[in-house]
Each structure stands twice: as C-alpha cells, then as structure tokens.
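Handout, section B. The chain below has 266 residues.
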Amino acid sequence: MARFLYTNEMIQFLQQTYKKHSISTTTILFNSKFSLNKTESQTKGTLSNHGITCGRTTGEIRKGKSRLFTQQQHEWIKEQYRHLNLDDLTNLFNSTFDTCMTQAQLRSFTRNHKIKSGRTGQFNPGQTAWNNGMKGWDAGGNSHKARFKKGNIPFNQRPVGSERIDTKDGYVMVKVSNPNTWRLKHIVEWEKVNGIMPDDHVLWFIDNDRTNCDPQNLMLATKAQHAVANKLGLGNADAQSKETVKLLAQLSITAATRKRSNKVVT
C-alpha cells in the first residue's frame, strides 16, 4: 500500500490547528478541511513525525474551558439554540464554522454547559394554536372520499345482540346497545324472566357451565353465600348439590352472626 503523503498545506494546517485544539478536535477539523478520514492515532503519529507540538503546558487547559469548542462558538451555540432544534443547529454550526461536528457532540456540549433552548413543547398563556380557525378545513383532492359521513356506521361495528366470550373469566358477553355497551349474558337472560337482579347478589351456574345462560340453569345467591361456599371449597359442586351448598353457606353465615352477637352482649 502506497504511503500517504502530506502536502505542505496539510502540515501547515496541523501546525496552526494543534496550537489551539486537542488531537481529537484537530483530527476532526483536518478531516473536514481535506475530506479525509484519518484517525486520532494517525494524526498523533503525523504530529510526532513532523515535530509539531501544541506549545501548551499541562495546566493551560483550565477546568470549565471547552477543548472542542471555542468561546466564540460557545456564545454562538447559546444564542442559536433558542431558535433552532438540534438537527438544524448542528447543520448551521458546521456550515458557519467549517467543521463536521455531530449532533451527539452538540447535544453533549449543551448539556454539559447547561445551555437550554427554552422550549417546553407546551402552549403558553395567550399563545394561538397552529390549527386555530381551521374548523371545516378541506384538505382538497380526494380526501372527501375517505371521510366518515354523519350517521355513518363503521364497517367493524358489531350489531346489538352480538355475543363474545370474555377471555379473562369465560363468561358470555352480549351487546345490548350502541355504540359499544356489553353486559353479562346470564344476567340479561335471568332478568328477562325474574326482573332486575337484586343488589348484593350473584348468579350460580347449576351445571358449572358459564356458557349455559338458560334461566333454568341459573341460581340466585347472596354475595355472602357465594363467598362462604368458595371458602368451603364448594364453589363448583355438582348440580344435585347446589341447593345443599347454598343452605350450608347460609347456616354458616347465621352461626357466625350469632357468635358475634354473643360476644357483644358479654
């Protein structure tokens, strides 16, 4: 591979640039100036081979002084960031100062130096929204063909009476009204025969099949009876035992109530 030859212009550029910047920044500026892709190691080697030194002492770069950006660039970024987003800021910075900084470098610089854009993304009091006065705005073209007309029913809207299975509990749900009101089918079917279900009550499926919503397969029980039956492990008793389970649950509730009453009296 042929050895890369540095021109006098390149050497002079390195001599002048390295006096003000670090090797990292010098490499970036050098690549930008001559449309090359040299690494920091290559730049360091070239500087050493040509006896180019920065001329700065170890403590010359003080805390708080940017190694990558000059004070002029610092002030420029601080002013322009108020009006530009990061993408536009980076592009304008590179064109203004003939550099090839990345968005990541600009972002780090603004964060490290606590430079804020002042933009919050929120509406300020008295600020006019961008779409103010656009009610009834027409996009033109064929946009009217894709609009919903008043009273139009979406193609995927299911009709009243539609049924689905609740994937969580396995109950059958039935749609009772538009646009999207659903109820448990077994309660709807029971109420058709018996009227509105009393508060604090539940319905048991006599055959334990939650999809069998025939009113003859439904038994009314209080929530207290339901809780006790489950506590006793009898929630899924067979059809012949359902009445007995309900009776046992009620006896248990009555006994517990009397026990609490006796404690209060004593």
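Note. The chain has a mean pLDDT of 85. Compare this with the example in section A.
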